[in-house]
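Handout, section B. The chain below has 200 residues.
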Amino acid sequence: MSRLIERYQSMPRSLRWLLAAAAAFAVYFGVVEPIIDYISRVNIEADKMASVLERSDAERRARAGAEQVIASGVARFGQVEFPGEPEVRSVEFNKQISEVVARHGLKEDSTTRTATLGAGPLAGAVGSDKRIERIVKELQVTATPEQVIRLIADLERLPSVASVPRVMIRKPSENEREGRMVKADISVETWVVARKGRSR
């Protein structure tokens, strides 16, 4: 070892500086640079993980917000069933509406019609050989304004009812008038999945 030191000291100054620089480069590129590369890779991976965690947290918050909106809707309007089989849903729908109207002590005049639901996400989700149809029941009742409001609220809570798209309330004519009674036309609809080409 002492011979190496003696030999190094006997070299010209410029050669010693050159060897020192070469040793510094060797240490930098052999030790320091790999450590810097490793730290850089670890930081990139940490950033990716942090990004995944942030995205996951944002999705969790969005999901919690959506669940809150759904819970609020269910509390206000009740559960809603997905479109059902035409024969089963039609009978169930008419029976439930008649029960609600009777529970309010009202008499109904009604008609039922079928219409195709327009294009949209739900229509595209049932397949090309099927379509979503609306079974619309048009109710006509004579009641007090409060009874009409309670009736509509109860109709909206029925699981088979997809929507109550139209309500028209009017005063009866002079010769029909009985106290505070009003005439209400209420459209109530449910949705069914029907095969295309099926006769209505």
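Note. The mean pLDDT is 83. Compare this with the example in section A.
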